[in-house]
Structures are given as C-alpha cells and as structure tokens.
Amino acid sequence: MINEEKVILMTRMASYEYGKGKKDITILNYFKGDYIGFQVLKSVIAATISFFLLLGVYFFYNFEVFMQDIYNMDLLAFGKSVIILYLCMVGAYGVITYVAFATKYSRAKKSLKTYYANLKKLAGMYEH
Questions:
Q1: 101 near 35, Cβ under 8 Å?
Q2: d(CA 128, CA 117)
Q3: pLDDT in tens, the chain (128 residues)
Q4: Fewer beta carbons under 10 A from the terminal one: N or C of the chain?
Q5: Closest Cα partner for 115 from 4, 6, 16?
Q6: CB–CB of 119/14 below 8 Å?
Q7: Is there a contact between 29 and 56 (Cβ–Cβ < 8 Å)?
C-alpha cells in the first residue's frame, strides 16, 4: 500500500533537489566568509567598471565646458571630489552586496538544514 505522506515528502524533496537545492548546495560548498568575500569582490570590480564608464560618459557630455574652464578649475579639488564619489559608490555597493549575500547564504543554509531534516524524517518512515 502506498503511504501518501511518504510520497508527498519525497515529491517535495525531489522538487527542492532539482530546483533551488542545486543553487543552495553550490552556495554552501564555500565557507560563509569566502562566499561573501568573493561576491563583494565581484561587486567592487563591477562598481569600479561602472563608475569609470559613467565618468567617461560625463566627461564626453560636458567636454566643451571642461575645455573652457580647465584653467579656472581647481583640478586637485575636482580630483578629490571624484575619488570621494568613487569611494562612496564602491562602499555602498560593497555594503549592499555584503548584506544581500549574507542573507542569501543564511537562507540557503536554513533550506538545506530543512532538507536534511526531511531526509531523516523519510528515513525514519522506512524503519517503521
């Protein structure tokens, strides 16, 4: 006779394994600090590239204004403001990435813990 509770549990576990479970397992193959650090590093690199692309677009858009005011500008102050803007942007990206991927890691760990609990429950059903 088919035990409906076993079938429901096995179906739920199989759908987790072939869906979200694959991602969770790849996430948990890393230590938490390594996973988050790698994601923050990727985010900082992407933020740096984005910042310089936006800065280039800004320079090209305002090229005529820069050429007219180049001798009247305080280039050191302008450089400092660009560096401060860059650091703020990269810092914000880093913090947002840290929080997002720390949460993602914790959720993956919790989901996998639930999966293993269901696996133990299923094994217990076979013993009875």
A1: yes
A2: 17
A3: 678 888 888 889 988 989 899 999 999 999 999 999 999 999 999 999 999 999 999 999 999 998 998 888 898 999 999 999 999 999 999 999 999 999 999 999 999 999 999 989 988 888 76
A4: N
A5: 16
A6: no
A7: no
